[in-house]
Amino acid sequence: MALLPKVTIAIDVMGGDHGPRVTVPAALNCLADHPDICIVLVGDEALISSNLGHSPPSVLSRIKIIHSDELVTMDDKPIHALRKKHSSMYLAINLVADGLADACVSAGNTGALMVLSRSLLGMHEGIDRPPFVREIPTLTGHCHVLDLGANVGCDAAHLYQFGVMGSIVSRVVDNKPNPRVGLLNVGQEESKGIEQVKEAAQLLQQNPRINYIGFVEGDHIFADEADVIVCDGFVGNVALKTSEGLAKMVGRLLERNFQQNLYARVVGLFSKPILHKLVKQIDPKRHNGASLLGLRGTLVKSHGNADIAAYQHAIIRAMNEASSGLPQLIQKEISEISL
Amino acid sequence: MALLPKVTIAIDVMGGDHGPRVTVPAALNCLADHPDICIVLVGDEALISSNLGHSPPSVLSRIKIIHSDELVTMDDKPIHALRKKHSSMYLAINLVADGLADACVSAGNTGALMVLSRSLLGMHEGIDRPPFVREIPTLTGHCHVLDLGANVGCDAAHLYQFGVMGSIVSRVVDNKPNPRVGLLNVGQEESKGIEQVKEAAQLLQQNPRINYIGFVEGDHIFADEADVIVCDGFVGNVALKTSEGLAKMVGRLLERNFQQNLYARVVGLFSKPILHKLVKQIDPKRHNGASLLGLRGTLVKSHGNADIAAYQHAIIRAMNEASSGLPQLIQKEISEISL
């Protein structure tokens, strides 16, 4: 008996630096790997078709194409995206709003994505600020860090909501029954930090469903000490980009160091696969896909310059969140703590 | 003709994880390398003596020992350090306050150091909040990042002062005539970020002595795009510790990856010197030594677990700052912008 598709994912094919050249092959790979999903490709039909390649009917039968010739550009002000009602981004998100898709993935303009998804999907009652969450690679796995830049200047209640939502994400996406939730701070002592972080600590501590482990510092992100790390969007964005920048520097220094002389070049040749693995291990892009939480639907933002493998990771994240009913679980727990 | 000592540095020998075992040999190495400095070692005299080894008279003649058997511990509340008037930290800072030393170096309790130095040395008029500044390694050199944790919740005027002070540091310490000053933010567009950062941008822009280059993001820290990067202490602390954490993870992953099988182990043997170099290149501790700016004297804080080479770096930083008259230059420029 054929599997009935469980999850339909709408993809804004035109978003990102590479557009259909990356988004379409990534979608095809996901369809091949996951026989229980359908994908709606939203974008320029001719470009989509030219990137479909020679996919088997079992894959093609689960693709639907919706043509769009309007584009939200990276320079568009977020508010202008609301007027571009035929853009691939607008149409893809709207499919989720209309119940025709369970999740949307886009690598397009982040500000536009935030405004459009808040407007079209709406937020759950009690959510003030939807945070971006994603996985950051750690020594043995990953942790979920939120907010990564959707909100700057969060108060204690916002940080508390992030902690509750992040805990649900880790439970659902990683199957961890009791994820450790930490608050990012400048020290581990209770007296350290800013008022809103200290207040958020009290709120998290008082919620019996949260396994709150206290303050964590920047270096703990990679040390597998927490499953969920909560912070203001300004701080999270700086932490994420700092680690991206350092990971990039490691790659460049490895190249340079292994080119310095003949000995280094020869050793470099033999070390290549091992070093390549390292560069991948520490690259935050490997865990591509940031979800905007607290919306009445699943929206995953891919890095703009994601390659095919990275974009696939974002699609799989969307699939996992939608199939596990993450938005509904968040709605339920947030409504309970808002009472 | 013998060189007359130009700079006298007071060292809180007891501070840090390793105490005299690290601080004394580091002092001896600095004295050997720099015939124009004197060092006052403040701490347990017996412990200091047992770590002096077989130094030549040309080194020993420039050492003075001041005995102290009181200790500021890592658990001491900063305010309690004020009462420990015979501690090595108190006495070492007081030597600068009394004009008997030009700079003080300590690897002890950061909060205590801040309170003691503000109290004993005093701040320049017009300085509201002394920031911690230090070098972060970049692809081809380093940049100065401030504040790294002395002040959380800075307003625009504080950030502006940090920019002015950081610019002087880069001019004086790196001999850069026109250092590029960037403000750390979550995007490069003028509309991005929080109010205080946007206001600070305007203030920096209006100062003709500052080569303000605009907003920079976390990944730009390592890309040699700015010589000075300004941020709130909360954000700077998270950025620094995040990069320390990732650098540590790189070291551990390299170890692990090169142990996975016989091939990797053999290649690892030959790659060792090259990889060791990389781990050093990306380790922020290599640029050990954070100065607390805006005080009427030079104070450099070393990382608590610095090794001898790292601690030497902190002493050299103190020497360079004191010999170039950094505190006086800062006083002059801050008084000019405060008019």
Layout: helices, strands, pairs:
The structure is a homodimer of 339-residue chains.
Chain A: E1 7-12, H1 20-33, E2 37-43, H2 45-50, H3 57-60, E3 63-67, H4 78-81, H5 88-97, E4 103-106, H6 110-120, E5 132-137, E6 142-146, H7 156-173, E7 180-184, H8 195-206, E8 211-216, E9 228-230, H9 233-257, H10 262-282, E10 290-292, E11 298-301, H11 308-323, H12 326-337
Parallel strand pairs in A: 1-2, 1-4, 2-3, 4-11, 6-9, 7-8, 7-9
Antiparallel strand pairs in A: 5-6, 5-10, 10-11
Helix pairs in contact in A: 1-11, 5-6, 7-8, 7-12, 9-10
Quick summary of this structure?
The first copy, chain A, contains twelve helices and eleven strands. The first copy, chain A, has 339 residues and is of the alpha/beta class.
